[in-house]
Amino acid sequence: MTVAETSVTRKVVERASSGARTKDLLFRSALLLCLFVAVSFLGVLLIDVAIDGVPLVTPEFITNFPSRLDPERSGVRPALIGTLYLMALCAVFIVPVGVAAAVYLEEFADPSRWWNRVIEVNIQNLAAVPSVVYGILGLAFIVRGPIDIWGLGQGSPTLLAGALTLGLLVLPVVIIVSREAIRAVPPSIREGALALGATKWQTIWKMVLPGSIAGIATGVILALSRAIGETAPLILVGAIAFRLSDPTIDGQFSALPIAIFGAAVEPRDEFRILAAGAIVVLLAVLLLMNSLAIYLRNRYEQKW
Questions:
Q1: What's the Cα-to-Cα distance from 147 to each of 144, 152, 153, 154, 196, rounded to whole Å?
Q2: How far, in Å, CA of 218 to CA of 87, rounded?
Q3: Would you list the domain boundaries of the chain?
Q4: pTM for this structure?
Q5: CATH 1.10.3720.10 fits 61-65+73-300, yes or no
Q6: Are 222 and 198 in contact (CB under 8 A)?
Q7: What confidence tens digit (pLDDT) does each residue in 13-41 have?
């Protein structure tokens, strides 16, 4: 190395000034302070909910029906069953539609065509639309819409209408996550399959989708976790907080977020404790779903 090269190298990697180090330290301290404040508030909320709600979570609380007259014997059975039904029906809707849309946009769509660009821009914009807008959409076009099947379009709230509304809410997220998972499959996998004589659809079905299943499954589960925690869309489509029977697909329904909201707005302290218990149950369901997403990602993720 010449003398000129050595001087240039020393100039490039010269030690940071004291002012730069001070700014760096202040920036890191500000980030840590913000993190500490956020975690502290979250911890206080969780501890407060746990103190009131954990002692209430018993088998009777899970299996009993809600009651305004006897809050000591009130439970969350219809809300819990309704949440599980909503999650299952929502998954039946968003998985095939979301994955099919992602496959089309990533594998078949021509990015030079204006309509494909319009579709991509609208999907990205829809992912940021507030949930209450989807609730209004569900009320106008699903609950009171032109489709007359399984209780839809008759103006009465049904479990299927709530599931479809939540599905529309998280569908853009599923499409975006599925596209990222499909894009993560190396092009050499596709090229190798095509070189061996496979058709494009065979390549997608046998190579691309199995290679992206971990990312797609993780995205779907996290999207469902968001969906079952939404309250505004379910209020607009007519979910009931105190339902005295198990929900049906073509009938009225309840859900855990609605049960929490209904108990929280009651003036008596007993219902505030019921809301805390329902929050604990909802947090347990979310924790199980997130744990399943982590397991599926670690179990089926492929290293290319």
A1: 8, 6, 5, 9, 46
A2: 15
A3: 14-56, 61-65+73-300
A4: 0.83
A5: yes
A6: no
A7: 566 677 778 888 899 999 999 999 999 99
